[in-house]
Amino acid sequence: MDDVLMNKLAILAEGAKYDVSCSSSGIERKNSGKGIGSARSFGVCHTWAADGRCISLLKLLMTNDCIYDCSYCINRSSNDVSRASMSPEEIALITIEFYRRNYIEGLFLSSAIEKNPTDTMEKMYQILKLLRRTYEFNGYIHIKAIPGADQALIEKCGYLADRMSVNIELPSTSSLKLLAPQKNYKQIIAPIENIKIGISRNSDERKHFRKAPKFVPAGQSTQVIIGATPDSDKSILRVSEKLYGEYNLKRVYYSAYMPVNKGSNLPALLTPPPLLREHRLYQADWLLRFYNFSVNELFSSGENNMDIQMDPKLYWALKNLNLFPFEINNASFEELIRIPGIGHTSAYRIIRERKIAHLDFDGLKKTGCVIGKSKYFVTCKGKYYGDNLDEKHIHKSLVKNNDYKQISFFG
Amino acid sequence: MIEMDYLYDGTYEGLLCCLYCHFLKIPATGIYQKHIYQRHLINPYREVPSLEKYSDYMDQKLKQHLGELISSQIFQCFLYEKGETENIILRFVDLCFKKGAKYAGFHTHPIVSSFDEAVRKVKYETHRYVGYVRFIQMGEYLYSSIHPQYNILPLIGGHFSDRYKGEKIIIHDVERKIALAANDGNFLVIPFDKTDLSKHAKNNFFEILWKTYFDHIAIKDRINPKLQRNFVPLKYRKDLTEFK
Ligand code: SF4
User: Fold this and answer.
1) Which CATH number fits domain A3-293: 3.40.50.261, 3.20.20.120, 3.90.230.10, 3.20.20.70?
2) Is the omega angle on the peptide bond into residue A325 within 30 degrees of 0, that is, cis?
3) Ligand 1 atom closest to Cα of A73?
């Protein structure tokens, strides 16, 4: 039985590994006192796999046996791969034993659809019940909400899980038609909408009755595949902007498509995954969430894709040079964080330090900003140190200096 | 004015007593641990005993003048335990007391920046070890051996004692010969002069299962040992089940 279980775990980990999300952050919860576990708001990585990705949660499929045939997916029904399923008891036991040894922060459970969506969701609910009620597990749990599953069941799961997610995977209806014709946009967005409504209703309830059970307290997230379809950066980021704005999502993850299947509608098998593009989308996503940028601003020059050679903030700054330079001793926080090379930390520092004494160029260097970038966009006590505020010049000096390092970083 | 080196017993309370003497008696040229002090030719020195009434007083003054956050950072800095740690603290506290608490935020000042650097390193390693501790089952205990660069046990105690409330756990800092023992939500750091107990343990099924999982979760086309090494430097790997 031990070998069988090991074999199943290997297959189901393989099936789950293309899902990017592994985050355990966003919720702080102490041990309730009886069972095991807690949740930390800052997120904890326990180790890093050979591909350099952090392992925080036990990321697992319940089964990889699927009735659907999505072209891009390794588990699609037409593929000839080994199939395996684990019972709720097995998954709960492995989660607890891994957690006791401090291998993981919790569980991230996903699944293929073996019979129908509701049946899959029902099994996930059993796992949640085993962990939360039988083992009194207080650690982090992230589960997939399965589009098409019974809504009441999804809701019951939401009261036991910390995070739920529905993967959008393909950012446009046309791509969905092309690669996952059995699915449709309405069906995917329905549970996202419902979870959003559930969360806001729950936060009202908790205002009146503090002890009301929490519903999906760490919020919901989703994932979009990059590079399997011709969707542009702009259209992908528009979807993200909408998900953050209208559906209050906590995170959108981007996954560079790794060709695992042959198919006339897919990139050829040996096409390398667009890792640098994925990285740029994460940077742009960051600007949307924490730097008050809008998609319109990022693409103000009319293009649909970003310049992959430079980070999106630098790209934006070069297209908007008329706004620069900012005087480092007067600029507001909002202005400071728009300067390439200056992030939240260095912006806070600049503001704190300049209260004590006006910052000169040497002082600016010590605030932890990327001075080689920032110097082109600022003045210190009125003096400009960037030798030339000119798009071509800055492009020439920065792109060769910084960005090839980024490429080799992912090499 | 006379100045002198203060010697203390290596405890945090002892260090606080030296700070007390520095401000209320004779200014210190430096603070050193008794057992590693090299006698100076010129500086006179004096041993400062650890007395609760002085250390409590000083602790209160630190909290009062610099706030909870900075006071806890001073303790974190103390756990850095490298070379001149005591003097980094002495100079930092001296600066903040004489020129005002706002100097604690003057990060470009050399005294503040060496303090910051020690705190940052200790905090970073503390955070790492929240993830890096690996338990093995030994009878009724969950045991873990670690080899941290800094003395981080007092800082991870709260986290582990809460998370593993129902278990009896021991986290053994092998080089420092101390261990964190926790049960029922409480913890203690105690002297623990034993060899690394994990060396004799038999392989458990869940350890093998974990290694299987670890190997299969990596995407083969994205294998990147350099990136992996950035995140899990080799020096930490000897205590990590999945790298053994
Ligand atoms: S439903 Fe999910 S598991 Fe099944 S083929 Fe589509 S993407 Fe793959």
Assistant:
1) 3.20.20.70
2) yes
3) 8
Q: Which of residues 131-170 of B touch A (CB under 8 A)?
A: 131-137, 142, 144, 159, 162-167
Enter the ipTM: 0.92
B241/A52 Cβ within 8 A: no
| Domain segments of chain A as ranges | 3-293, 312-398
Q: CA-CA distance, A54 to A49, in Å (whole number)?
A: 6
Are B219 and A17 a contacting pair at CB < 8 A? Answer: yes
B-chain CB neighbours of A103 within 8 Å are 134, 210, 241-242
Give the nearest chain B residue to A11 (CA atoms).
B216
> Residues A372, A401: contact at Cβ < 8 Å?
yes
- CA geometry: angle B116, B122, B128, nearest 5 deg: 130
DSSP state of A212: S
Q: Cα of A368 to ligand 1 centre, how many Å? A: 45
Q: How far is the CA of B88 from the centre of ligand 1 (A)?
A: 58
What single-letter DSSP state applies at residue A63? B
Question: Is any Cβ of chain A less than 8 angstroms from the Cβ of B185?
Answer: yes
Contact between chains at B219 and A18 (C-beta distance less than 8 A): yes
**What pLDDT, in 10s, does the model give residues B175-231?**
999 999 999 999 999 999 988 888 888 889 999 999 999 999 998 888 899 999 999
Q: List the domain boundaries for chain B.
A: 4-124, 133-243
Question: Which SS3 state, helix, strand or coil, does residue B29 take?
Answer: strand
Task: Report pTM.
Answer: 0.88
B91-134 confidence digits (pLDDT tens): 999 999 999 888 888 888 899 999 999 999 999 999 999 999 99
| Residue keyed to tokens 């093998």 | B208
| Pairwise CA distance, residues B70 & B66, whole Å | 6
Ligand 1 contact, A112 CB (< 6 A): yes
